[in-house]
Every structure is written in structure tokens, then in C-alpha cells.
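This part of the workshop introduces the protein records we will be handling. Getting from the letters to the C-alpha cells is the skill we practise here. An example says more than a description, so a record of this kind follows:
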Amino acid sequence: MSKQLKIVKLSQIKLETKYRQREKDLSLELDLSRNGLKEPLIVEAVNKNLYILVDGYRRYYALDFLEIEEACCIVEEQTSKEHRIIKRLGRELQTKKRTAYELERMIKDLLRHKDYNSMIISQLCGVSEETINKYLLGSDVNPEWLRRGATTGAGRHGFTVIHHLNVSDDIKGKIAERYINREFPKTTLDVINKITKEKGFNSLSEEYVEACINDIILHQASSYQGAKYIVDEYALKLRFSKSNHASIHDLVFKLLMRIEAFFNNKHYVNHLTNKQRARLIIQLHKLLSKIRPHINWADVHAEELKRRSKK
């Protein structure tokens, strides 16, 4: 039997729901109620009264919710469970409508069958073998993380990154807990992954490792340089290093330039209250006293004039 277009009752369609749980899609339901079904469901015919849904689960659930009893379907010949997985997987790897959790389950189910390996799956689905293997890298990830992450919507691949981080299992667990709770995005996790490979990071004590990662998460660091400043700060607390010192000095100078820009803004300076001015002056004196407890302001002024004359 070749493919044919046919009106099929929803009650005659059998679902294979292991890879697609029932979910509510209000926008799709609204579109279907206004415009009808634009794209047919794809089913395989078991017999004239029974069909297996291959593609279109979201549309099927929306039609069912709207109490629409039948739908236009592309009817194909019945194949096997594995072949239907290939059909779904190939389509979903292109559209990326399903979660990584669902795609991983589909790939693992195929690999349990002797006729499939990652190369064959990639060829049948029209993607690279690297794409298939990406979903298998985290096969040894804590299953409880995955179960909870799928519930909260935390990205699947992030757990693989956490699992392979160069930190203790205790800290991995704490990072995973915060990732599950969606306290930071995958971009910050990628920065953590990169920064934990740094020599400076690996010299930190366990206490400082945790504090450093907490600060990176707190500041939602999305750049390597921003995270590196945090690592260098903690490393410099432990011991002097010329490179760490230079990094922190660079950061301090950039912050001072930022403060100078604020002080050059007349709308900020001219509207400071006396109390605000006093607090700023006290704080600035405290900072200066930490650098040079006994400042000769005449020398400072002379050095500044000398610096300007060289420009």
C-alpha cells in the first residue's frame, strides 16, 4: 500500500506515548479551532480500523482536547516499532521540537536492537554521527538529576557538562541542584566548565572552589573573562601570583575608570545630598588608606602632572 490521504477517527488511532507525553498547547488549540488542521497527521495502518500515530502528537492532543472526532491523515504501511522511531527521530532532529530527554530515550531504545548503531541511526536520520553521539555522552549521568531536570525544564545536555566537571562530587551535586531549579542558564554553566579547566582554578582549596562557583552563578557570568576575574580574586587570597595580581589590578583599574565616569556625570554629582557626599568621601579615604596609609598628596599631584605632560 502506497501513502494515501484519508480521514481517520481519532478513536481508531493508537498512540506510542513513551517518547511524547500528553501536553497542553493553548496556542496550537486556538489555531486549530480557528483554522482547522493545516498539516495532516502521519499514521501507519494496522488494519482498516486501527492505526498507529507516527507523527503529530501535539496536533492529536489538541484535536482531542477540542473534541474533534476525526482528522486528515497520511496513511502509510505498517512497519516496526524501531522503524517508526527512526521516522520520528529523523524528523525531530531536524525540527528540534522535542526535548533532548525524549530524543535520548529514542536513540537508546534503537541501540538496544542488534540492527542499529550510532552510524546507522545517523545515516537513516540524515544527521552526523556526532549529533547522535552527543545524546549518548551522558549515559552515566545521575538518573535522579535527569528525572527532576525533565520536570523543571532544565536543559538535558547541561547535566552531562556538570557530570564531567573537574570538581568534587559534592560540589557537582550542589551545582546540579541549582541547575535543576533554573537558577542560572546553560551559558553560565559553559563558562564554569571552561574555567574549571584553568590552572589557577585547580590550585584553589575546596572551600574556595565552591565559593568561586557560587560567585560565578550569582553574577550570572556569561563570559570567560568575567569568570576568570573571580577565579583570580580567590587565587590571590590564597597566595601571591604575578599573573593573578596583574589580572586583579586590571580589574580594579577598570572599575575605577567606571567610577570616574560616574563622577564626571554632573547630573549625578550635582544632585548628591550632603549625607551621600560624606559617605562617599569616607569610603574613598578608607580605600586610599589601604593602598598607602601615609599619602603625600603633593607627590601624588606631582606624579599626575608628570603623567599628563607625557601624553
Notes: The chain has a mean pLDDT of 89. The first strand starts at residue 4 and ends at 9.
